[in-house]
Design a protein that fits this description.
Elements lengths: L3 E5 L3 H13 L3 E5 L2 H11 L3 E5 L7 H10 L8 E5 L4 H5 L5 E6 L4 H13 L4
Length: 124
């Protein structure tokens, strides 16, 4: 069974590129375009890997990451942070489940490699 990836980003082009490149890599890909619905999607989809943008409408990626880290059901969820804000990297480094950091614009092959590496470490 394909590993599930949830991509949370408010830019349609980013969602489209991430979705198509990860699907080509054999992943089942779900998307969400805002922070308000992101937590509901995480709970519903139960992804093996999360690709998370920092700047989101509603709830930003950092606030979402704090919630993910504090919840028993998601505290071990591998997260790849995707952002145009390079300085945000330091904010996320304290979270052990943040396994990768990519700056926008990103290369599809690099995203696929990073997500595949994270998914390979997921048990189950």
């Amino acid at each position: 069974m394909a590993k599930k990836v949830l991509v949370i980003d408010d830019e349609p082009e980013t969602l489209s590129l991430a979705k198509s490149s990860l699907e080509q890599g054999g992943f089942e890909v779900h998307t969400c375009d805002n922070g308000r619905q992101a937590w509901e999607e995480i709970v519903k989809v139960k992804p093996d890997v999360l690709v998370l943008d920092v700047m989101l409408p509603g709830i930003d990626g950092y606030a979402l990451q704090i919630k993910i880290a504090s919840e028993p059901t998601t505290k071990d969820l591998p997260v790849v942070v995707l952002t145009a804000l390079e300085p945000a990297k330091t904010l996320f480094q304290k979270f052990p489940q943040v396994v990768g950091f990519m700056s926008k614009p990103f290369k599809a092959e690099e995203l696929l490699r990073m997500v595949a590496d994270a998914a390979a470490k997921v048990v189950g």
